[in-house]
Design goal:
This protein has two domains: about 5-85, Alpha-Beta Plaits (2-Layer Sandwich), CATH 3.30.70.1280; about 85-170, Alpha-Beta Plaits. It is about 30% helix and about 25% strand. It is built from six helices and eight strands. The chain has helices at about 25-30, 55-70, 80-90, 115-120, 155, 170-180, and strands spanning about 5-10, 40, 45-50, 75-80, 100-110, 130-135, 135-145, 165-170. The longest helix has 16 residues, at about 55-70.
């Protein structure tokens, strides 16, 4: 039986020169933690790996501990199985990622819920911003031509944002494709 594939979405590494993490060292950290079939996508903390043990929450806790030990600072980590990630991508609004929009996925880390985020969502700009709830995520888009008028930065300034990580639609859909490809040694 094949071991399930997962993705770890690391928050806040290699952003604006802060929290630098080398991708080779990141893969080594996953291997040292017992996840031998790990690979990264981009420099923003997308790690694909196989794990036979544990729930997403258990994997997150184990990985956060290993990352803290290895890199010396906390790296909030969200884990999704291949199937969970696929469901999130498939549930996006039909126009999400269209050429006229700048689209992202805000992944929500449990125990925070999408509903709790939406309850706290600041007022966004009508005609510019749009949001939609999804499984474990919020889909956010803004009209490209009006992107400078977005109000999503209000959410990003709130404490609740520390329990989310953002991926562009392009990155999210590419990770989705990569999860279906064979991992090294798989």
């Amino acid at each position: 039986m094949e071991t399930p594939t997962h993705v770890a979405l690391l928050r806040g590494i290699n952003v604006g020169g802060r929290n630098p993490v080398d991708m080779r060292a990141l893969v080594e950290c996953f291997r040292d933690a017992g996840y031998g079939e790990a690979r990264t996508h981009l420099q923003s903390g997308n790690v694909l790996f196989r794990a036979a043990r544990g729930t997403d929450a258990k994997l997150e806790a184990d990985l956060e501990h290993a990352l803290q030990q290895r890199f010396g600072f906390a790296i909030p980590t969200l884990v999704r199985s291949r199937d969970e990630f696929a469901v999130t991508i498939a549930a996006a609004p039909d126009d999400h990622g269209s050429d006229r929009l700048r689209s992202e996925v805000f992944f929500v880390k449990a125990p925070l819920t999408v509903d709790a985020v939406l309850d706290q969502m600041p007022e966004l700009r009508a005609g510019v911003d749009s949001i939609a709830p999804g499984p474990g995520a919020i889909y956010f888009s803004r009209v490209k031509a009006l992107a400078g008028k977005t109000r999503i930065t209000r959410l990003m300034a709130m404490p609740v944002f520390q329990q989310m990580t953002v991926r562009s639609w392009r990155t999210a859909t590419r990770v989705r494709q990569l999860l279906d490809e064979e991992l090294p040694g798989g």
